[in-house]
Amino acid sequence: QASSPGTSPPTAVTAVQDGPTSILVSWSPSSDATGYRIDYDGGGVGDRVELGADSTRLKLTDLTIGETYTISIVATSPNQLASSPIMKQVRLVSTPAQPMVVTDAVVATADTITISWAVPPDVTGSEVSWELTEQMRRRRRRGVCNAEGGTSGRLPADQNSYTMDKLSSGTSYDITVTVFNPAGNSSTTFTRSTDGG
């Protein structure tokens, strides 16, 4: 005796931290599903959510930082076996600690400043930005250099140094190092000058 055919499972299933205490689950729909069943557990709690066929995402909220959550999603349809479950695990990280800039290791030339920092745990990326200090902005408020500054753009998680170039000689800059993860970001700002030449 043949068993009932199973429902096709959802595809492209992802589960990612989406803020300090939330996980966003998303998927591409199954061709023959009339609904989805999502089970999750972790941190001593568990729950089940039933969604309709047109659903492609679910945000789990009020979760606990530091806990690992196991998420299972199956497609369901009448008169058929549920699909095989797609399993995902997500550990909720907290907002990263401030990056510690190694101030003794800052290297300045007439037009560059090179900095390095200690990367805290659970960081997914970083960014360096810089601008003229307030004193320099006042001094140059009538000049074209008034808005001088820039950003590194997003850097890889494991990068812990950066060289700012095309700077002005003998000029003071406020430099900010920001580290990111899915829970948020933290920054450290300090002031350094290029060599006067």
Automatic annotation (TrEMBL):
Instruction: Give the residues annotated as coiled coil.
Output: none
Q: Does the keyword Disulfide bond apply?
A: no
Location of the Fibronectin type-III domain:
9-98, 99-197
Going by the entry's taxonomy, the superkingdom of the source organism is recorded as Eukaryota
Q: What Pfam families does the annotation carry?
A: fn3
Name assigned to this protein = Fibronectin
SUPFAM superfamilies xrefs: Fibronectin type III
Task: Give the UniProt keywords, A-Z.
Answer: Repeat
